[in-house]
Amino acid sequence: xxxxxxxxxxxxxxxxxxxxxxxxKEQPVPxxxxxxxxxxxxxxxxxxxxxxxxxxxxxxVVRKITKLASQMGVKTLTLYAFSTENWKRPKxxxxxxxxxxxxxxxxxxxxxxxxxVRVTMMGYKENLPGHTTRAIEKAMNETKENTGLVLNFALxxxxxxxxxxxxxxxxxxxxxxxxxxxELSEEIFSSYxxxxxxxxxxxxxRTSGEIRLSNFMLWQLAYSEFWFTEVxxxxxxxxxxVEAVEAYQNRQRRFGGV
Length: 258
Description:
Elements: H1 2-25, E1 32-36, H2 40-46, H3 51-72, E2 76-83, H4 91-97, H5 100-114, E3 118-122, H6 130-143, E4 150-157, H7 159-175, H8 186-190, E5 203-206, E6 225-228, H9 238-249
Parallel strand pairs: 1-2, 1-5, 2-4, 3-4, 5-6
């Protein structure tokens, strides 16, 4: 009897989610969604598990949300996978985090190809271990012809470093006569950033109850809509993503205007 009730509840939930998805597609969907995936360690601690167990569980959520975003019509999904500050964590945790791209892409790459997803990465590759960069480059190469959702991993990424490097490139180009400083604009400066080939995020999602940007896309998020939730990333489900997009669609974006 309990199993029948559980099955009925699951069917009702799936039916409700499908109906909400139909309604979402009738309105403008955020073209670019960025997510700060937070709370893996706390999720594991609550269950008396090692922190890496939380990261492993969080990897499954990436797969689920990527597929949902693709089906919803989102064009770009940027995931904050590893920051330049994350090197300060214990070595065992860092080593595990940097093995996750290999594990995730090794398992789910065929699915991503089937979903017409194109994998990209932004961040500082030169400091990453070889097995991490090889996994990312393999996925990028095998999905480069795909025309659907862009799954962009922010890996060994820090926004302040990105902005400083962009300023250095601007100064060099001005000195070399490639760029006239009087012509420098926000649009031109944006072309020096790691996101030069994509639009700024329309929606930022952060899980786990933290309300800060943590050095993530500081320039690009200037006029993004923010959505915060107490839900820890490994518990973040399709219904939460749908809720975030619904909240986005119910807001009026003014971009500094009236």
